[in-house]
Amino acid sequence: MYERYASFNRYGDLSKLITDQDLLQVTEDESVYISNENDYDIAVDLESCYAPFDEVKPFIAFLATQICELDNIAQRFHRKKRVKNNGRGYVRLPSPTGTYQIDYSQSMEDNPAPQEVKFSFILAFVYMEEKNRISFDYWCTTRNSQLEVVFEYKENKFFLRTYGAIDNIPDNWEEE
After folding, report:
1. Residue 168: which residues within 8 A CB-CB, separation 6 or more?
2. How many other CB atoms are found less than 10 A from the CB of residue 116?
3. Model confidence over 39-95: pLDDT tens digits?
4. Cα–Cα distance for residue pair 151/57, rounded to 1 Å
5. Buried b (16+ CB within 10 A) or exposed e, 34-72
6. Whole-angstrom Cα distance, residue 110 to residue 32?
């Protein structure tokens, strides 16, 4: 059932997204849907939003045009920097000052085996609690779990900052 969600460019059909700010509407539960329920069913939660709806409306419309690429970034990180099962040691990511190293009870691996790369999450909610920072709430399609992915918007570009428990991801993580 969820196979259509397991590949790149899965949110690539802009006709299914609401990219015109004049068409965005707030629902009773303080959400703004940027796609129809029958299409992608993605909503921006306004309850915890840093500013009133009228102020963030243009950014929400812009964000709708970027959903596909942001989702692709999350999937690329998932495929390139996957947490090993039962691993131990350090997570090493490149950073502007050298190597960013985190001691976790699980270690990371570059380019995991093909059977481990499936990204079994769908995007459900977007949160905008801080200006220039958005959070994606992914829901798992195979078990009862969620994944938070945070992006920072600076210099007219989005940068991955958090992927689940991995925090402070450097701008150049893909260059390693």
Report:
1. 100, 161, 162
2. 14
3. 889 999 999 999 999 999 999 999 999 999 999 999 888 877 655 544 444 455 555
4. 18
5. bbeeeebebbbbbeebeeeeeebbebbbebbebbbebbb
6. 37
